[in-house]
Write a structure and sequence with these properties.
alpha+beta, Heat Shock Protein 90, Single alpha-helices involved in coiled-coils or other helix-helix interfaces, 3 domains, 9% strand
């Protein structure tokens, strides 16, 4: 009995929210008309973009409600309303998603009142003449219809709020344009870093090495002892230059990835991270390897997350998960520390996000006050 009452109660609550939203849609029509009139008279042209933003928020609230009921995400594909007023007006009018949201609002005013049939259905399920048997007999037959009404309302909302192929293509092109620009910027910054490291490190060591060798060659005949000391100094300079070059190479593609693969490299990171860390691997056993670019991005993401956890989290334990997905790779780093991490506070995680975005991947950071902090990186690849 309880199993049928709970879904019906949830469905009734959800239909009630839909009815309230439908009533609000009716009231919102006046706001929309004011914005249109203001735009036509030029004086209130600024109202239209703000109204469109409000429509997007209402549609976003509906998407979240549907996701809470069905467990499925309804994607968004909006053009950003930024720039001067003329540009924002043009975007608000031409964006296909604006028309789709208006179409949903008009339709939702009609089907949002599906809560009304739920009331007589509940009445049918109530006992007759105070006999409790009526509730027991009728509820299993009547109450599932309330859940079906809620499912129907969610299905219609999903169909109407789902972006059109044209809108999704435009959003995809915009994302690719942004990630391409970020990738170019990150590549340029990486080249400048390599040039700076070589100039200040290995190149300076090699210049000093060349000078020591030249002095040793001149002193070889007249002062063999001084020549030997200069040769010893040159050997030290050569070793330091090699150390600098290894540092630069590790910043491009860590050699440990080539030698041990991502799993071995991450386990080595965890062992030397300065905090107790455990590594869990799913689907990457038996030497399964992702492409080099994907492994490199995942490795640097885990490196940055572990470094931040060791420095700032105060967590006694960090867990790292590497999982092979059907069409990609997922890396998750979780600590039970203080939380409150802000991605914009430093450049490390921002650089990781750019690196991940350049591979068409996704990075999510969750760090509420009090913890935990969870960094999730998903990278697409073919196995």
């Amino acid at each position: 009995m309880g199993t049928s009452l709970r879904p019906a109660a949830r469905g009734t609550g959800r239909l009630g929210v839909a009815a309230v939203m439908a009533f609000g849609t009716c009231l919102f029509t006046a706001v929309l008309l004011i914005a249109i009139v203001g735009t036509l008279t030029v004086v209130g042209a600024w109202l239209l973009p703000e109204t469109v933003l409000l429509i997007r928020r209402i549609a976003g609230a509906k998407r979240r409600q549907v996701r809470a009921w069905t467990g499925r995400e309804i994607p968004e594909a909006y053009e950003p309303l930024t720039g001067p007023l003329r540009e924002r007006l043009r975007t608000a009018v031409r964006d296909p998603a604006t028309l789709a949201d208006l179409r949903w609002m008009a339709a939702h005013y009609v089907y949002g009142w599906l809560v009304l049939p739920a009331v007589p259905l509940w009445l049918l399920a109530l006992p007759v003449d105070g006999v409790r048997v009526g509730l027991l007999r009728r509820a299993p037959l009547v109450l599932p219809w309330i859940v079906r009404l809620a499912d129907l309302e969610a299905r219609w909302s999903t169909v109407l709020l789902k972006p059109s192929p044209k809108a999704r293509l435009a959003a995809r092109v915009r994302v690719l344009t942004e990630t391409r620009a970020d990738a170019i910027a990150a590549h340029g910054a990486e080249l400048r870093r390599i040039e700076r490291d070589l100039h200040d490190g290995a190149q300076a060591r090699l210049v000093a090495l060349s000078m020591r060798l030249g002095l040793a060659q001149r002193a070889f005949d007249r002062d063999p002892g001084a020549a030997r000391r200069l040769m010893a100094d040159a050997q030290g300079q050569a070793e330091q230059a090699l150390t600098e070059l290894r540092h630069v190479v590790r910043g491009i593609h860590p050699p440990i990835l080539t030698d041990r693969g991502l799993v071995g490299a991450v386990r080595a990171l965890a062992a030397g991270s300065g905090v107790e860390a455990t590594v869990t691997v799913k689907g990457l056993e038996d030497g399964v390897r992702a492409p080099a670019a994907v492994e490199t991005a995942a490795y640097f993401a885990v490196t940055e997350a572990l470094t931040n956890a060791a420095k700032h989290s105060g967590s006694p334990l960090v867990t790292v998960e590497l999982e092979r997905l059907r069409k990609g790779l997922r890396a998750v780093v979780r600590d039970e520390g203080f939380g409150g991490a802000e991605e914009g506070a430093g450049t490390g995680m921002s650089g990781v996000r750019r690196r991940v975005a350049a591979l068409d991947g996704e990075m999510r950071v969750s760090s509420p006050a009090g913890g935990p902090t969870v960094v999730v990186v998903e990278l697409p690849c073919l196995w």
